[in-house]
Amino acid sequence: MRIGIIACETFRRELEMIIQGDEDIVHKEYLEFGLHEYPEELKKAVVDKVNSLEGKVDAVLLGYGICQSLKDITKKMRVPTVQLKEDDCIGVLITSEEYERERKICAGTMFHTPAFCEMGEAWFEKDMRKKMSEEQMKDFLDQGYDTMWFLRTLFNGYSRTLFIDTGIGDREHYLALSREFAAKLDMRHECRDGTLDVIRDALRRTKELATA
Predict the structure, then answer these.
(1) Angle CA 84–115–89, to nearest 5
(2) Would you kindly state where each structural domain of the chain is located, as residue ranges?
(3) 100-136 pLDDT per residue, tens
């Protein structure tokens, strides 16, 4: 059996733990987080990556939620492919039902998975610089604005940071990063357990598809 994985970078830590020692996995590739902001680029990237594995694998696990633009994307794949059914990475890591429940508890929640904890404010600064020309960035900084101003504007209306413990790596390390992020943006901090069951089930379905 030959299984390929094409997934968002946000799932790398969890997937690596799940597939450790699995000899059925013959290809894995993680795409940069943020492509969901560019729907057509995201669709093209995942279709091209999966189709490039034609003849090399028996089935592919696509490690993406719907992400607003990937509904029914597997119809464009030339390789049998299993897609996650949840809206996005948070729904995958706590289930869609729990995602909805947490949003009802606090609509203004920044959900912090281990991946997001490590991205921290540095990712937002990188993203901000990518979207601005050098001249715009210089004007922005010359006017006294900085990354934290940008973050506070971006998260205006948010009041909670929720750390999602998916059981990978150093929990205290991720928890500290999450608390630090919440403190900088004056949000209250809470934490809860996540789950890897959704990903494990998708991998099981991928293997069943490979032998169908």
Answers:
(1) 20
(2) 3-92+196-210, 96-193
(3) 999 999 999 999 999 999 998 888 877 777 777 888 8
Q: Return the residue matching tokens 């494990």.
A: 200
Is pTM, for the whole model, over 0.70?
yes
**Average pLDDT, stretch 151-175?**
94
Q: Where does 3-92+196-210 sit in CATH, by number?
A: 3.40.50
Buried b (16+ CB within 10 A) or exposed e, 65-99: bbbebbeebbeebebebbbbebebbbbbbbbbebb
Helix (H, G, I), strand (E, B) or coil at 9: helix
**CA separation for the pair 209, 169 (Å, rounded):** 30
Main-chain phi, psi angles of 52, to 5 degrees: -70, -15
Residues 6+ apart with CB under 8 A from 159: 106, 108, 109, 187, 188
191 and 62 Cβ atoms separated by less than 8 Å: no
> Which CA distances in Å does 28 have to 31, 39, 146, 197?
10, 22, 37, 19
Q: SS in 3 state form for 178-208?
A: HHHHHHHCCCEEEEEECCCHHHHHHHHHHHH
CA distances from 85 to 15, 68, 111, 120, 122 (A): 16, 12, 19, 27, 30
What are 99's two structure tokens?
A: 């995602």
